[in-house]
Amino acid sequence: MDIQLLCSDTVKEKIGRILAKTDIHLAEEAKIVMVERGFAVPAEKIAVVFESSDYLEALDLLLKYAESDHTGLQVITGFSNNRYSLIPVADIYHIDAHGSEITCCTAKETYYLKNTLQYYEGTLNNRGIMRINKSQLVNIMNVREIIPWFNARLVLGMKNGTELEVSKYYAKFLRKTLIM
Question: Which residues contact 99 (CB under 8 A, 6 or more apart)?
Fold first, then answer.
């Protein structure tokens, strides 16, 4: 796995010594970047922002991610326009439950799904899909911005322009996951 570092020389040297003992390599073109607070966060990359005093916690998060199992579902099956389609997990924006009906929204289309929201939450959780309220799952990789809202809630601005509300209960988990 490759990561990019945007931090002070002192922290970069400390992190470099630790990474030399792992399978994680420093690369400018990496999709994941560790950013020390105060440095500019690059667009279109997954950023882990950390305080200089807490770089070990951020590094531990990346090491756990590198060691984790990434063999979960790559695609799910959805039904739309009288045909079944394979939907890559990366294309999913959110999955919604409306009564007994489960839908999956992508940039191009909305699909009907056969299984329960709980099933997709369990099978896709290591693919960046997480619950944000009692009736919605979201693909964190397709979130453009996170807006603090009233009563400890959050609003997620998606890359396709839609906004999704994160309940107070699930906002705690989202903050912890994203180290906010």
Answer: none
